[in-house]
Amino acid sequence: MDKLEKMILEYGEVREGNILKVDSFLNHQLNPVFLYQMGEEFYRLFKDKEITKILTIEVSGIAIAVMAALIFKVPVVFAKKTESLNLDKDIYAGKVFSYTKNKEYNIMISKKYLDNNDKVLIIDDFLAEGNAIRGLIDLTKQSKSQIMGIGIAIEKGFQKGGKILRSEGYDLKSLAIVDELKADHIKFRIQQ
Amino acid sequence: MDKLEKMILEYGEVREGNILKVDSFLNHQLNPVFLYQMGEEFYRLFKDKEITKILTIEVSGIAIAVMAALIFKVPVVFAKKTESLNLDKDIYAGKVFSYTKNKEYNIMISKKYLDNNDKVLIIDDFLAEGNAIRGLIDLTKQSKSQIMGIGIAIEKGFQKGGKILRSEGYDLKSLAIVDELKADHIKFRIQQ
User: Fold this and answer.
1) DSSP classification of residue B26
2) Which residue, among B65, B33, B55, has the nearest Cα to A54 in the 3D structure?
3) Which of left, alpha, beta for B102 (phi over 0: left; psi -120 to 50: alpha)?
4) Residue A76 touches chain B, beta carbons under 8 Å
């Protein structure tokens, strides 16, 4: 998505440890009109997949997911992060390791909001090693729902998450793939 | 807002401790079309206030705020909750006491995204004692921005937050005000 690449080049800040900060439009301040345009792009990419539900994870996935959901006209469910492992039998629970924060956290969704009739589009803001997405895939498997696609705003193509997920057959589409991330140089993968 | 009252009566679950769970459309699963309608209602209520920015707090405020912002065509800034008190000089920082979780947490926003030129609409999902809103007001005061209004989805009218904020002169509008909350009976305040 050309506009996302332009936004990253104009507003993104590169920090040590392969961190790309896009706080001005995606992770702290939100640009709603641009988020809606990202939603339209996800719709263009996945509109034939008969999506019944969009799944994301708090916090940063929510705004993009809800904009896409407005266009798909389906509900969003966001996985909640919890401090303690919740073993309530009414929930699907899993674990995610965060490299950015160097700790493991628990995630959960209520069984009420995802079941074996659902055709799921997973949406998130970033994909690097793929740990958060892996956690969401685990929850969908518990629910016996079907993953129809995975939509990412910004994929770090130099980390292995995207490559592995595609090799496993997931229909993963990223609106921008960053192949090189340096303070003075960001290189994007050319996509069709 | 009649439709919000209907949604609360149909899908809300009353729990001990004056908890009203609206997980099916607002706090875990999100109904994007209905959230957009809430955004339209906030626009109707505050459209003459020359709003330049919508301020909310993670997590539950984000989806409503971004929908309203899509209609106002202004950015959202969401205050982040942090475990440690961050004394970075580039941020506005404050504290919020959560009755629901019985603990105090730190909140922050980057100075980049709020300043003395901003006319702010604060939006949040719930108002009870008003602690989260008080924290957001504190951050806006630090930024010297101007609070033009406060928009709440669901106010618990039997708790004192709303009454105090109105007595201080804030233009506070709630889409639904719950005056009585019992498992078998929810009573709404009649509003114009």
Assistant:
1) I
2) B33
3) left
4) yes
Q: The domain B2-188 is classified under which CATH number: 3.40.1360.10, 3.30.540.10, 3.40.50.2020, 3.40.50.10540?
A: 3.40.50.2020
pTM of the entire predicted model: 0.96
Q: Model confidence over A8-42: pLDDT tens digits?
A: 999 999 998 889 999 999 999 999 999 999 999 99
Asked whether the ipTM of the predicted complex exceeds the cut of 0.90, the reply is yes
Q: Map out the domains of chain B as residue ranges.
A: 2-188
Residue owning tokens 């961190």: A19
Kindly list the distances between the CA atom of residue A83 and the CA atoms of A78, B21, B27, B101, B103, in Å, as whole numbers in the listed order.
Answer: 16, 20, 18, 12, 14
Contact predicate A82/A95, CB 8 Å: no
Burial class for B120, CB neighbours closer than 10 Å (0-12, 13-18, 19+): buried
Sequence-distant (6+) residues with CB within 8 A of A10 are none
Residue of chain B minimizing CA distance to A30: B76
Q: Are A160 and A148 in contact (CB under 8 A)?
A: no
A105 Cβ under 8 Å from any chain B Cβ? no
Strand-strand pairing, A146-156 and A29-30: unpaired
pLDDT exceeds cutoff 80 at A143: yes
Q: With contact defined as beta carbons under 8 Å apart, do A114 and A55 qualify?
A: yes
CATH 3.20.20.80, domain A2-79+111-188, yes or no:
no
Does A20 contact chain B (CB < 8 Å)? no
- CA B185-B188-B192 angle, to 5 degrees, is 160
